[in-house]
Amino acid sequence: MEKELSVAIVGGTGNLGTALALRLAAPGVRVIIGSRDRQKAKTVVESLGKSLWQGKIEGETNQEAVKEADVVVVAVPYEGHATMVADLKGQLSGKTVIDTVVPLNKGKPFTPPAGSALLEAQEILGAEAPVVGALHNISALDLNEPDAPLGDVLICGNSDAAKQQVMEILRRIGARCFDAGPAANAYVVEGLTGVLIHLNRKYKSKHASIRITGIGEKSR
What we know:
Blueprint: E1 6-10, H1 15-25, E2 30-35, H2 38-48, E3 57-61, H3 62-68, E4 71-74, H4 81-88, E5 96-99, E6 104-105, E7 108-109, H5 117-125, E8 131-133, H6 140-143, E9 153-155, H7 160-171, E10 177-179, H8 186-202
Parallel strand pairs: 1-2, 1-4, 2-3, 4-5, 5-8, 9-10
Antiparallel strand pairs: 6-7
Helix pairs in contact: 4-5
């Protein structure tokens, strides 16, 4: 029997974390929402019950969630990013880390000292775990709706195997994924979020995303 895939979402009580949890649970992924406060995680999971169309979501502390997971999603505001990754260092050994974090200041992107959030996380973790950047340009509102189409997902990272694993997971939720290159490219992908925020404000939308054209299905 194929082993059940377990995904922990640390800082998973926010909009992106909860919406991603709902999407991942539907195709049978075991999802564990993590929080610094176990009760907060369990309360959020309980509140998601009425929106959960299929599958099961669990709530735990960040540390327990990571312990149980094969893949870990970091979904915290940038202000707590480095601290969160550092707190989990050691427990992330051998796991693939999906970093969704975008450095923003009042909705405007900026480049952190490490070059990007992804590079910051990889710098902290070193060779302990591969970090893959993904889901920066996807609306939490779209993730939250089971039938809503998703924009394309650009995947960055230095491990080809880890990027392939992340793409296979995200295809389960209906996303088209593209290998957007090494970790050094992450600042571009993260920065696009600021452009999408501006487009949403300018055109009174909440669903701006990106679409890659000119690449055949067999090329992805």
